[in-house]
Amino acid sequence: MTRTTPANDSAAEPTNRRALRSQARGEQSRLLALSLPAFILVGTLVLLPMGWLFWLSVYGSDGFTLENYTRLLHPAYKETLITTFELAFLVTGLCILLGYPLSYVASQLSPRWASLVMLCVLFPFWTSLLVRTYAWLVLLQRRGVINTWLMDMGLIDTPLKLVHNFTGTTIGMVHIMLPFLVLPLYASMKTIDFDLMKAASNLGASPTRAFWEIYVPLTLPGLGAGVILVFVLSLGFYVTPALLGGGRVMMWAMQIERSMAVYGDWGAASALGVVLLVMTLGILWLLGRLTGAFAGAGGR
Amino acid sequence: MHDASSDTGPAFAGPGDASAASAQDHSLPISVKSLVKSYGAFRALDDVSIDIRSGEFMTLLGPSGSGKTTLLMVLAGFVRPDSGSVTFGDKEILLLPPHKRDIGMVFQNYALFPHMTVAENLAYPLKLRRVGKAEIRERVERALDLVQLGGLGHRDIQELSGGQRQRVALARAIIFEPRILLMDEPLSALDKNLREQMQFEVRRLHEQLGITTVYVTHDQREALTMSDRIAVINDGRIQQVDGPRALYEKPETYFVANFIGETFSLPVEVAGDSVTLFGQPIETGAPLAHGDKNQSLILRPEILHMFEGDPDPGMNRLSGKVRQHVFQGDSVVTYVTVEGERELAVRRQHRSDETELAPGSDIQLGWLVQDTVILPEGDGSS
Amino acid sequence: MLRKAATATQITHLQRLWLYVVCALVIVFLVAPTLLVVPMSFSDSRYLQFPPESWSLRWYEAYLGSLEWRRATVVSLQVAGLTMVVATITGTLAAYGLHVSRVKAGKYVSVLLTLPMIIPVILLAVGIFLTFAPVGLNSTILGLVLAHSILAIPLVLITVTAGMRNFDINQEMVARSMGASRPWAFLTVTLPQIRNSVLSAALLAFIISLDEVVIALLIAGGDKATLTRRMFLALRDEIDPTIAAISTLLIGLSILLLALSQFLQSKRD
To answer: What is the mean pLDDT of chain C?
Structure first.
């Protein structure tokens, strides 16, 4: 046996312990330091300002105040809040309705066709948001393509009001948000083992039942991720509602911009901002917990 | 750290002229003392000490999670232990970063650079040492010849078979004449035939270069075939360091006895120098290393012999009943029950002229006194 | 073909023809509106029609003839290029460091670095405006580059980390055992192999900056207005057909970059 007992158990520290420990610490901090530039950028331009915003929202000219928050109870703000949530729910719902069948079919296509479909999903993703919003503006306006077509076909006599209102905003936003739902959903559907469905039908489940009771629960984690993304992005959305809503659809983000840029009211802008931030993080946390539960129910 | 002047000399002794003297120059002894490495509450290395001689082929053998790879990674510098000491020659290297240790290394998955050709892979360590272009070309060719891949330097890694990749990895690890070669289960990804062929190749290369080699494997057969000495590791502790034969015939711990080769154990009672097995006294070749009352008799299928009558003198004996014969081609294994419930196996050469005893027949088992191994169960080091 | 079973549950393709029709419509919904802009940009009329009654290049001429549009384009390209450099370098360094180090703090750092993806852009914009005001970075190229880098870093981090996961870290170890220092091993062994991930990340960073509207709206005034800012303001007032021409150019650029990134990804395997 070559095992040797240490020369002196009680005496001095084991060989090299201190040097090794300080070396380990040095190496780890050098590696962590690689993320320092990114960390400093994000820290000074995201964390710091968020703290500042919070400070501005509770600290007025005469000390601490909750006045900026009590002001938010005004009906005008309440209406904005309701519009924002209405739109976010509607957009999320429509995205599920359109995105689920698309992901379902795409996940079962041959690789060649699937990649073609996914390319079509990615294309709007890569195209400028503004360009896509502009496209809808051109299509939906009073003398736009859709109205012209409908009138030429004799289906309508007077142009429909499709844009600069809630309808136009919804259509535009669904178009923008759909890829965010499809991508995680598609990814999760790709991983589903179809033997489970086979097993279910062997056990006597009808295709419809197998679909609802086996397949859909398995896709919930992916669907949950997509839903979170779409809902949260919708809550804070600015560009598309501002252009397609034509000033008639007031979203929370627009209220913030307006308080700041038009009225120079930092108190209101920061309070609105803090509320939006809290809502966003709150929903993310809540849905994160829920999808965790879904994932558990999915048998993983 | 690496001797720049050695770059002007021959890469290593060519196939024809391997002399012991030049081999010794290129290798260093390794001395490991009191290494400790914990991950939280888990002790991956628990006070490990081992000396590896210059030019030796030392295998670290153990089950997965035993700490053998951790020990290798400590030698390489990729795992930093909590405390301890490692010297190469007379230099303490534990605080040196990996790139200053001058070691050659072969990984299980080869870790060849896929964005370089075979020759570029081999040239990589030489370029780091600022070896001239002409010499690089020459040494790469010689290294390829050495691993029998001459003329394949321009190939992409993807074009190579598993065995060829293994050879490239090996050539790359030795081309810069490191003093020490570390190998982490390098053959485990190969199929059985190729593996046996490569075992022979690695061993031949080692004899040619005489480089101190530390080889990690969980395959006991591979360890027994290739090594000068084997260190058996379990639970972060070194169980025994010995030559293959000694390790097989004279295991010092119950773990080693069970891990290497096929073993069966029977309970024995020890009182002073006398040992009783199922109430019968048996003889031991040497005094027992442990004084515990309850220990185990370790029996391997090939040391047992079957007798219809009395066993030869100078043998310990045991009576049993034949249960079953299993034909394995080159050998026949007979399973024998002793004391009603315990089972032993006896292996003997297959011979067509022998008739087998019918199952159920009474039989005497015997084994040489010097083959008697008695060890306490559990951690034998206590 | 149609009668073949589509799934393990024995529904034929014919039985779910309706599903394919729905999917085709959704794909049309996703792709067609954007693509309709292209032919319309060549229309001769102030009112954009499809198909256009007569063709001309007048909106492209209007775009190229306008000093303001040209200047905005230059600003956008400058900012996007610089953002690409800043975000790719800082993001890749962070991704490597966080992947290789085993410190617990690393996990928190990566969560922190992805925060800009979660926080509504309008808030980021307001906050950045606040921070830039005292140091005079509003309406500067540097300010825009820093702000856009914040948006791009999370995506660079995610893309490069995915690349690192596919990379066999043993290769870097073997390089170090042969005498390469860690930075050198990274440059000669790791980087060449995660190259495609890094390039994809760079393309993403470029396009994120080029397309960004909200932050530019708040912090990019005067002669540092970006293309998207000018487009947004022009659209809010009236639908100027020049924008159709610009949009067509941007769509062309998107297709080019998308093709490039797909190409890189296919080579990654």
So the answer is: 88
Q: Which amino acid is at A253?
A: A
Where on the phi/psi map is residue C151: left (φ > 0), alpha (ψ -120 to 50), or beta? Answer: alpha
What amino acid occupies position A261?
A
CA-to-CA distance for B85 and B82, rounded, in angstroms? 10
Judging contacts by C-beta atoms under 8 Å, the chain A residues touching residue B236 are none
Q: What confidence tier does B239 reach under pLDDT thresholds 50, 70, 90?
A: very high
Residue C230: both structure tokens together: 């000018």
Residues B5, B116: Cα–Cα separation, whole Å: 27
Helix (H) or strand (E) holding C82: helix C67-100
Q: Where are the beta strands (DSSP E) in C25-167?
A: none
C-alpha distance from A32 to closest chain B C-alpha (Å): 17
Lookup: tokens for C187: 């440059």
Q: Which of B363, B370, B360, B301 lies closest to B331, judged by CA?
A: B301
Q: For residue C18, what are the CA distances in angstroms to A175, C12, C21? A: 21, 12, 5
The answer to whether the CB atoms of C211 and A130 lie below 8 A apart is yes
Q: From CA C153, how far away is CA C160, in angstroms rounded?
A: 10
Structural domains in chain A plus CATH codes: 86-250 (1.10.3720.10)
- Residue B312 is classified by DSSP as P
Class of the CATH-defined domain C60-267? mainly alpha
Interface of A with B in 2-61 (CB under 8 A): 2-6, 13-17, 19-21, 23-24, 27
Domain boundaries, chain C: 17-58, 60-267
What is the pLDDT, as a whole number, of residue B14? 39
Q: Which residues pair with B267 in a beta bridge?
A: B296
Query: What span, in angstroms and rounded, lies between the C-alpha atoms of A30 and A41?
Result: 18
| Six-digit token string for A215 | 């397949």
Give whichever of B289-303, C93-107, C118-132 has the largest mean pLDDT: C118-132
How is chain C split among helix, strand and coil, in percent rounded to 5? 75, 0, 20
Q: Give the domain ranges of chain B.
A: 4-103+178-249, 262-375
Q: Domain B262-375 is of which CATH architecture?
A: Beta Barrel (2.40)
d(CA B99, CA C25): 59
Query: Cβ contact (<8 Å) for C34 and A49?
Result: no
Span C48-65, average pLDDT? 84
What is the model's pTM?
A: 0.83
Tokens of C103: 């410190």
Residue found under tokens 């959704």: C26
Q: How confident is the model at residue B287 (pLDDT cuts 50, 70, 90)?
A: confident
> Count H helices, E strands: chain C?
12, 0
Domain B4-103+178-249 matching CATH 3.40.50.1000: the answer reads no
Window 75-134 of B, Cβ < 8 Å to C = 76-78, 97-105, 107, 109, 111-115, 124-125, 128-129
